[in-house]
Amino acid sequence: MNTILIKDAKIINDGTSYKGSLLIEGEKISKIFRDNIPDSVLKSATVIDADGKWVLPGVIDTHVHFREPGLTEKGDFESESRAAVAGGVTTVFDMPNTNPQTTTAALVEQKAEIASKKCLTNYGFYIGATNENVDEIKNIDPKAVAGVKIFMGISTGGMLVNSKQSLEDIFASAKVPVVTHNEDEAMIKANTEAIKAKYPEGQVPISEHMFIRSSDACYKCTSFVIDLAKKHGTQLHVLHLSTKKEIALFERNVDIENKKITAEVCPNYLWFDETDYDRLGAKIKCNPAIKKEKSRENLLKGLEQGSIDTVASDHSPHLLSQKQGDALTAASGIPSIQHTLPMMLQLAKKGNFTREQVVEKMCHNPAKIFKVEKRGFIRKGYYADLVIVSPDDPYTIEEKDLLYKCGWSPMVGEQLQYKVTQTFVNGNLVYDEGKINGDKKGQRVSFDR
Closest by alpha carbon to 118, among 318, 397, 405, 416? Predict the structure, then answer.
């Protein structure tokens, strides 16, 4: 059994920061020391000197697209989990818009079997909703899936649910959180036709994407699903907020364990805005669209003030060739998981929120909302899913350092000062100063439901 002592770190956890040391025995955290460490521990453990560094719970990223099965030219469980651990992510929940689409319990199990052989992080899965699989959703084991994913607007994979009766049935019967991609499909179609008319030659600038997938389309759909959740008492988690208007729909500063309607934002919407389209083009094209600077500023405030509860990557790799084209033809999605935690710590450094809030939104709240067993916190008896961060280690993101199979990122050239140096998954050191230790695979997440 491995015995590792992470010594003299600044531990950031449960809303506070303090100097301490952690003892890992096997898969779990066995002791937390705030004062002197017994000589017997120092002699028996492998010691990692973390003086001057921070230790955080491993990030629980509840929104990833690792593309397996069926789309593995873009990414797979091995390649994308390597990027994840390099970014301090220790648990991921994978989305259902793969090939085949994960719309049955049997297909969830098939995906779990693939991940068990390849994925370095821990893993959970969503079952995807369709207009036809309501009975499948009613019969799912709540301990076996993270939640039910509903695409309210067509996005990558084409999994639109537009039957009002199916939506009513899903919201009325779901035993797990319902997570939704919210864009009003009719408004998107109307906006698309209007934009096409504006550019009769056919080449539509990427910057028009935010007017096709407009703020009003997001707001209308989010309002609708919140009303539906309130009607049926459903636990609802709204994905990737991108607009100022949506923030007002969510309660702030409610105890997260009693909050039935919660919201997520992604670092892409906090880092980029409309001014970046000219520079980065389709590299920042995603659904919902990145919008105006004012939206970005208000999303940052919503996160700090408690209206927005979680931060997830929406890691969505595409081949660079698939990102060629205009606002109507280029693929939507951004690879991001390798840098989401350093990006959020950088935004905290700028004064948008605290580093303790970063841990709350990326580690604690995902564990609470989805009832993840014994992960998301630094506590005795919890799994040793941990990340060590060097807090003053400036670097420029370079293409050669990217671990995504797709090989590109809009973050190339950006400067960050927070560097992930080590990542532990279930007590195993899987990332160490740039080296991947891929012998040990992650575990399937258990849900306390």
Answer: 405
Q: What is the Cβ-side half-sphere exposure of residue 373, based on CA atoms within 13 angstroms?
A: 11
3-55+380-436 CATH, one of 2.30.40.10, 1.10.1040.10, 3.40.50.150, 3.40.50.970: 2.30.40.10
User: In this predicted structure, what is the pLDDT of residue 428?
Assistant: 98
pLDDT at 155: 61
- One fold for 3-55+380-436 and 59-370: no
Q: Could you write out the three-class secondary structure of the chain?
A: CCEEEEEEEEEEECCEEEEEEEEEECCEEEEEECCCCCHHHHHHCEEEECCCCEEEECEEEEEECCCCCCCCCCCCHHHHHHHHHHCCEEEEEECCCCCCCCCCHHHHHHHHHHHHHHCCCEEEEEEECCCCCHHHHHCCCCCCCCEEEEECCCCCCCCECCCHHHHHHHHHHCCCCEEEECCCHHHHHHHHHHHHHHCCCCCCCHHHHHHHCCHHHHHHHHHHHHHHHHHHCCCEEECCCCCHHHHCCCCCCCCHHHCCEEEEECHHHHHCCHHHHHHHHHHHCCCCCCCCHHHHHHHHHHHHHCCCCEECCCECCCCHHHHCCCCCCCCCCECCCCCHHHHHHHHHHCCCCCHHHHHHHHHHHHHHHHCECCCCCCCCCCECCEEEEECCCCEECCHHHCCCCCCCCCCCCCEECCEEEEEEECCEEEEECCEECCCCCCCECCECC
Q: What is the pLDDT of residue 92?
A: 99
> Alpha-carbon distance 283 to 189, whole Å?
23
Q: What's the confidence (pLDDT) of residue 290?
A: 98
Domain boundaries, the chain: 3-55+380-436, 59-370
Note the pLDDT of residue 264. 98
Strand 59-64 and strand 54-57: the pairing is: unpaired
pLDDT at 201: 85
Are 217 and 191 in contact by the 8 Å Cβ rule? The answer is yes
Compute the distance between CA of residue 87 and CA of residue 68 in angstroms, rounded to an integer.
20
- What pLDDT is attached to residue 253? 78
Q: Which CATH class is domain 59-370?
A: alpha beta
Torsion angle (degrees, nearest 10) of CA 183, 184, 189, 192:
-40
Pick out the chain residues at pLDDT < 50: none
Closest among 122, 196, 183 to 153, alpha carbons compared: 183
